[in-house]
Amino acid sequence: MLKKIWLSPPHMGGNEEAYVKEAFETNWIAPLGPNVQQFEKSIEDFVGNNAHAACLSSGTGAIHLGLELLGVSKGDEVICQSFTFSASANPITYLGASPIFVDSEEDTWNISPILLEEAIKDRMAHGKKPKAIVAVHLYGMPYKVDEVHAIARNYDIPVIEDSAEALGSSYRGFNCGSFGDIGVLSFNGNKIITTSGGGALLCKDQTTKEKAVFLATQARDNAPHYQHSHIGYNYRMSNVLAGIGRGQMEVLKDRVAARRHNFQYYKEHLSTLPDITFINEPEGSYSNRWLTCILTPSFEVRENLRTALDKKNIESRPLWKPMHLQPVFEKNVSFVNGISEDLFERGLCLPSGSSLEIDDLDRICGIIKNELK
Ligand SMILES: *Cc1c(COP(=O)(O)O)cnc(C)c1O
């Protein structure tokens, strides 16, 4: 059997176990403790731009709490990028609100500023001003930050910046995660760094961070007994897992460099094929290249490549299926232009782990070249 090549496996740096061991030795086996505090500090130092971080049990939980902090509630509408993973949209429904889906533009594959404004105007004409906007830096490529935030400011609508795939990416020198009223990171097993499972909510001030932590730890009022004036959640990160996060933050820069190297390698070896194209970084954008994506001429070619790789024990994956095409969201209002649907049909994510070796990359490129011959 040929060696399995995964799409995006975990890649430990070396110090993670020491921090986990520290948690055991000090008996901080709880959803709080020194590892959580240190992990939060290292995230804040890395992201910069005055970001405050609250570590949570998942990125999905961070989006849920973020929406709640922005006042989203039953009957509200929230605009959401359609071309994304379902976790960007699901939490909107947890609060009894409805996602309104907006399609992508070609330069970054993220939310189209033109359609976004059209959607806001349309919903306002229906007497439903959107309560928030969920914009996503998909595959690590920053969305059109200036345009999207100018529109949001103009209509006074807060933005949740879903940066789950974009830790280490930046736009005009500022790090992704620091642009939204609320930013979201994920440390799931396949992300650029991982705590096996976990996430973080980023915000602009300490008060909002404290509110997030309050809601994430069962919303307990300040009293000697257990008293509650709010509905709370159990969303805080475990101090054991935060130990993994501390170790991973020490190698984040290397992980970004390795993923960007994967992209360069694929581009160099595959863009000579007339049938394969890549997405470039627009001026001012720096992508962590979480996953390298290629576009093929058709659904058939995409599937041929995917199955040819699969036969050789190599995992690849179609691009995200847009939310407006998902059975669970098919009745939702959406503003579409065909772009995300086309990307889904023709696009494939190639193995992109930071631990890939040149031999692996070479093997993958060889199979693709052979298939397209
Ligand atoms: C992974 C991911 C999430 C969810 O993060 P989890 O930590 O897995 O809950 C949200 N949005 C996007 C775009 C993601 O890729």
Description:
The relative contact order is 0.18. The chain is globular, with a radius of gyration of 21 Å. Helix 1 runs antiparallel to helix 8, helix 2 (34-47) packs parallel to helix 8 (239-249) and helix 10 (299-311) crosses helix 12. The protein has helices at residues 16-25, 34-47, 59-69, 90-94, 113-125, 145-154, 206-216, 239-249, 252-270, 299-311, 339-346, 358-372; strands at residues 52-56, 77-81, 98-102, 132-136, 159-162, 170-171, 174-175, 182-186, 199-203, 285-286, 292-295, 317-318, 334-335, 347-350. With 373 residues, it is of the alpha/beta class. It folds into 2 domains: 16-249, Aspartate Aminotransferase, domain 2 (3-Layer(aba) Sandwich); 252-371, Aspartate Aminotransferase, domain 1 (Alpha-Beta Complex). The protein has 12 helices and 14 strands. The protein binds pyridoxal-5'-phosphate (PLP). Pyridoxal-5'-phosphate (PLP) binds at residues 58-60, 84-85, 87-88, 136, 162, 164-165, 186, 188, 199. Pyridoxal-5'-phosphate binds at residues 58-60, 84-85, 87-88, 136, 162, 164-165, 186, 188, 199.
